[in-house]
Specification:
Length: about 290
């Protein structure tokens, strides 16, 4: 795993955007958030001090969102391979093995006495009709936890994929909140041929805090992002006890005929930490929540 990202000279194609930030959501009481809100073990993970590199405007091809597309829906340009370009019948959902890329293994969740990781699912699971392999967590840099000494990497690069797929399914959450629509992480697809493409992951659009917060809406604004797990927080001291939650976001691959070699994640250096628990690739349209 390299904790670096060289964006110089790359032609990036933005495939998903976020809504403009509005007023921050309601927060839970400070007593409910401290000290376990960090979600992290006490040991710190080394990070870089540099800012997220700026991408020159002339290197980004922006996509205009049609007026009839709901807020937060990923879109692609007319030049991308969007419709019927892979044989969906032959595609299967395949969880990625993220063992090498996790910053904390699920083997240690039960031994974490400072945070409620003992309460979260791990191993082989199926949530929202998507099969997952939850073996730990990748945690990107966030300013609040960094200020408390929890220094996470700004980048996780070269996550090995080596397959074709229509959609990538991200099982994730955040530590701490942000205003609606704030980009908290950027995902980059790298292909065997062709230019990289990127998608922003945004608070309230695709994901929220792993602590269920009073006053936040039940639904995310992106229709392809759903809360797929909600459970007890055994360390909560509130009455009624607090709960935990995780989400799945379906991210369309704009070039499904081209093999994806690797993906990268980059923190946008906002307040929340992006926390990635599992990734699955496969056909589009897998994510379904039973009523």
């Amino acid at each position: 795993m390299k904790i670096s990202l060289n964006l110089g000279g790359l032609f990036l194609f933005v495939i998903a955007g976020c809504a403009q930030p509005v007023s921050p959501p309601a927060t839970t009481a400070a007593s409910e958030l401290a000290p376990q809100q960090s979600g992290l073990p006490q040991e710190a993970i080394a990070t870089t001090d540099s800012a997220v590199p700026a991408i020159p405007a002339e290197k980004i091809e922006k996509v205009d969102v049609p007026a009839d597309v709901p807020e937060g829906t990923a879109t692609t340009s007319s030049t991308t391979d969007t419709a019927a370009t892979t044989d969906s019948a032959n595609l299967k959902a395949e969880p990625l093995d993220l063992t090498y890329y996790y910053h904390s293994s699920a083997d240690g969740f039960d031994r974490d006495g400072g945070h409620p990781w003992r309460d979260v699912p791990r191993g082989k699971q199926t949530f929202g009709n998507v099969p997952l392999e939850i073996g730990g967590r990748m945690t990107l840099w966030g300013s609040i936890n960094a200020g408390r000494g929890h220094n996470n990497p700004e980048y996780v690069t070269d996550v090995q994929i080596d397959r074709k797929f229509e959609a990538l399914y991200l099982y994730h959450a955040t530590f701490h909140s942000a205003p609606q629509g704030t980009p908290i992480a950027r995902l980059t697809f790298h292909y065997v041929s062709g230019d990289p493409t990127t998608a922003d992951i945004c608070y309230g659009t695709h994901v929220r805090d792993w602590f269920v917060r009073t006053g936040e809406p039940e639904e995310l604004s992106d229709p392809k992002s759903k809360r797929v797990w909600r459970g007890k927080n055994s360390m909560s001291k509130s009455n009624p006890p607090g709960e935990l939650q995780f989400f799945i976001t379906e991210i369309a691959n704009p070039h499904p005929k081209d093999e994806v070699t690797t993906i990268d994640f980059a923190s946008t250096k906002e307040q929340p930490n992006a926390c990635i628990m599992a990734i699955t690739t496969g056909p589009a349209g897998l994510l379904k929540i039973e009523p």
